[in-house]
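Please fill in the sequence for the structure shown.

STRUCTURE ENCODING:
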């Protein structure tokens, strides 16, 4: 993302961009493999998760989700790409910084303060949140505002599950996510690149949409620190920066809440930030994107960016009658 004073030009290819990615088995392949092997109980259990876990962190399987749009059907990013090419400015602004420095993040113990216009505010311990609803696997496109994308198999449940339990009041129109900002764990927080803590927000109907995921894991395991351990949101129809990582508080408000990127550059990053190939960023087109792991060599193959990142059928009606150029 942008910052005039900054040297991390996102167009520069990094080693991680040009590494040929290993194929990750998707559900279909699992089913075929299981059928070929004559499915045993063990393989049937394995089918509970659609993507093979890499075996690096604690297992967190999720059942294939029944929510419409929950799986793109596209090849997922290699675990290596998904965990080494990241934006997490609390650990630095280079794509490789989070993988290098996020080791110092302590994802346990952890709790999330739920506050504001709800009948049942309170502090939720991570273990309580993990048990709040059944874990599902959701294979979502993530489209960064910078012009790259990945397909990531998240594990979590709809944020709506948590929201329903805290009983929002009628006056609650928005939800704000506040993320960790601890200098001791996050070296990037010493730099003034953004106002910390990193804050993001959604309109209530967006937050309640079944596709809005409270994610605790990916690839059948708990989230790696660089991807926002121990919990984050994943809002697949919006630019990636809306999907706040390492959340410590969720606030219900009447007024549209502050968001970090909007504060940093309001003319470039709006509150809505729905993926929209027709509305350019002031400094670059959003018409197409580079799929991380896909392009090898100098001439990067680019894909057409889809309206609402391909989730128009599911979320288009949330914006009926809104001018999406004004509400960028
Ligand atoms: N707290 C926090 N959350 C964040 C960011 C950040 O810098 N800090 N970067 C955002 C951006 S710009 C993107 S594209 C996604 C990247 O998620 P990923 O690294 O898991 O692919 O996280 C988003 N969430
Ligand atoms: Mo991003």
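FILLED IN BY: designer on duty
SEQUENCE:
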């Amino acid at each position: 993302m942008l910052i005039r004073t900054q040297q991390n030009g996102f167009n520069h290819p990094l080693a991680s961009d040009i590494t040929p990615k290993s194929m990750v088995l998707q559900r279909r392949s699992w089913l075929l493999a299981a059928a070929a092997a004559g499915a045993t109980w063990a393989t049937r259990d394995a089918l509970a998760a659609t993507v093979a876990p890499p075996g690096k962190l604690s297992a967190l399987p999720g059942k294939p989700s029944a929510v419409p749009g929950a799986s793109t059907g596209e090849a997922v990013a290699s675990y290596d790409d998904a965990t080494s090419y990241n934006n997490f400015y609390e650990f630095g602004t280079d794509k490789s910084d989070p993988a290098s420095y996020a080791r110092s993040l302590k994802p346990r113990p952890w709790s999330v303060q739920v506050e504001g216009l709800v009948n049942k505010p309170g502090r939720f311990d991570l273990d309580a949140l993990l048990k709040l609803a059944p874990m599902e696997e959701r294979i979502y496109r993530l489209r960064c505002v910078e012009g790259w994308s990945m397909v990531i198999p998240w594990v979590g449940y709809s944020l709506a599950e948590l929201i329903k339990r805290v009983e929002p009041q009628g006056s609650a129109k928005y939800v704000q996510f506040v993320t960790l900002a601890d200098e001791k764990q996050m070296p990037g927080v010493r730099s003034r690149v953004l106002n910390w803590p990193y804050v993001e927000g959604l309109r209530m109907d967006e937050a309640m949409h079944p596709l809005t995921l409270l994610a605790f894991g990916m690839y059948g395991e708990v989230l790696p620190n660089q991807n926002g351990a121990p919990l984050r949101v994943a809002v697949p129809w919006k630019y990636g920066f809306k999907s706040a990582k390492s959340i410590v508080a969720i606030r219900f408000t009447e007024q549209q809440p502050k968001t970090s990127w909007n504060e940093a550059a309001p003319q470039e990053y709006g509150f809505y930030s729905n993926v929209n190939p027709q509305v350019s960023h002031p400094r670059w087109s959003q018409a197409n994107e580079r799929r991380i792991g896909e392009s090898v060599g100098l001439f990067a193959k680019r894909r057409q960016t889809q309206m609402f990142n391909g989730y128009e059928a599911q979320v288009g009606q949330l914006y009926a009658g809104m001018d999406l150029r004004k509400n960028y």
